[in-house]
Design brief:
Oligomer: homodimer
Largest interface: A-B, 38 and 38 residues
Number of strands of chain A: 3
Strand order of the largest sheet of chain A: 1-3-2
Helix content of chain A: 40-55%
Strand content of chain A: 15-25%
Order of helices and strands of chain A: HEHHEEH
Radius of gyration of chain A: 16 Å
Amino acid sequence: MGQSNPPFMSGVPELLLLRLLDQREMYGYELVKAIRRVTEEAISLGEGVIYPVLHSLEKRSFLQARRKKVDGRTRVYYSLNAEGRRHLRRLQEDWQRIQTGVTTALDKPAGA
Amino acid sequence: MGQSNPPFMSGVPELLLLRLLDQREMYGYELVKAIRRVTEEAISLGEGVIYPVLHSLEKRSFLQARRKKVDGRTRVYYSLNAEGRRHLRRLQEDWQRIQTGVTTALDKPAGA
DNA sequence: CTGCATACCTCGAATCACGAGGTATAGTTT
DNA sequence: AAACTATACCTCGTGATTCGAGGTATGCAG
């Protein structure tokens, strides 16, 4: 059951979701596919990851939902608000810091 | 009340430890400081993180320990074995994949 | 003898990614 | 019409693991 805490994934679903919603309003099922697309298949997240993160983000008031009927199907569209955009910026900075730190460490030749 | 799973840190302690031990034998307390140094202060890990990871790595036979007395103090030096080096390579590939995926997603302009 | 750096350790808490499983509708295939 | 696939939403339990707080002990400087 579940690999759990797979290396290097913590915080990544939230960051990717925020990044996509920063560009345009989208719904859950669409986001699942969009993540595969924008990461060029490097990262694939299931619905069991996406929906809970979306709900958590909504509860924390970083985005709001609106239901929309399309072709007889009900979709829940999410969009970022100002608070969410601030949160995205903070996460991007964190990512940048960690990413640079790790890359720096990995690139350091034996002599350093 | 540790922050717990802080964004983007999962797997990072293990990767950094392996990377450092791939270069030379080191002991816990030394590794704590080395991590700060090689990441240029971007990442700082406490002993509460380092020791458990070291023990887990040892239990999984990725490295072995040997006690050494230096200036009346006992240090536990850890060194990587072939298995551990293989593990490091795998983790580096994982990191590379995630890192590239996230960076690609973040760099994608709104139009994509 | 007080404090600090060195050096090891354990524990509980909190988090969070994940797969499995569940519901329902629409369209296509057999 | 039955079966199957894609769309679209959801919840739950498991497991991994990061973290700070706290604990022990030695050597050395003030």
